[in-house]
C-alpha cells in the first residue's frame, strides 16, 4: 500500500476503505479491486484522476445537496449552520 511519510494512504486505498463501509455491492467491488496487482490499480486510478472531468462532468459552482440528500450526511447540522452563516453574510453585503 502506498503511504505518505506521515502515514496517510495514497491513491486508491482511501476510496476502497470507504467502499467497505457502504451497502452492497460496493464492499464486494472494493474486494474485487484488491485482487488486481498494485501497478494495475495505480494505473486505473491515475487514468480516472487525469480524465475525471470528462468522465463525470464538472460544475461551475459547488453543488449543494437538497435537504432530502443532506439527511444522509453525518455532519448535517454543521453543514446547515454554515450555510445559514453564509446566507446571512450575503444579505449583509
Textual characterization of the structure:
With 93 residues, this protein is mostly helical. The protein has six helices and no strands. Helix 1 runs antiparallel to helix 2. It is extended, with a radius of gyration of 18 Å. Mean pLDDT is 79; it is low at 88-92.
Give the helix/strand layout.
Elements: H1 13-21, H2 26-33, H3 38-50, H4 52-56, H5 67-70, H6 76-92
Helix pairs in contact: 1-2
- Compute the number of strand runs: 0
Query: Count of helices?
Result: 6
| Low-pLDDT ranges | 88-92
Mean model confidence by pLDDT: 79
Gyration radius, to the nearest Å?
A: 18 Å
Q: Give the SSE order as H and E letters.
A: HHHHHH
Strand content: under 5%
Biggest β-sheet, characterized?
A: none
Outline type: extended
Q: What structural class do you assign from the helix and strand content?
A: mainly alpha
* Helix coverage percent: 55-70%
Calculate the terminal CA-CA distance, rounded to whole Å.
49 Å
Outline:
The chain has 93 residues and is an all-alpha fold. 60% of the residues lie in helices and 0% in strands. Helix 1 (13-21) packs antiparallel against helix 2 (26-33).
Please give a handful of descriptors for the protein shown:
60% helix, single chain, disordered C terminus, 93 residues, extended, 6 helices, 0% strand, mainly alpha
Amino acid at each position: 500500500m502506498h503511504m505518505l511519510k506521515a502515514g496517510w494512504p495514497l491513491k486508491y486505498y482511501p476510496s476502497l476503505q470507504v467502499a467497505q463501509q457502504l451497502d452492497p455491492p460496493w464492499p464486494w467491488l472494493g474486494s474485487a479491486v484488491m485482487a488486481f496487482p498494485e501497478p494495475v490499480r495505480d494505473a486505473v486510478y491515475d487514468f480516472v484522476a487525469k480524465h475525471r472531468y470528462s468522465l463525470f462532468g464538472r460544475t461551475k459552482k459547488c453543488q449543494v445537496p437538497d435537504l432530502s440528500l443532506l439527511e444522509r450526511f453525518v455532519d448535517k447540522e454543521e453543514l446547515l449552520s454554515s450555510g445559514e452563516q453564509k446566507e446571512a453574510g450575503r444579505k449583509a453585503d
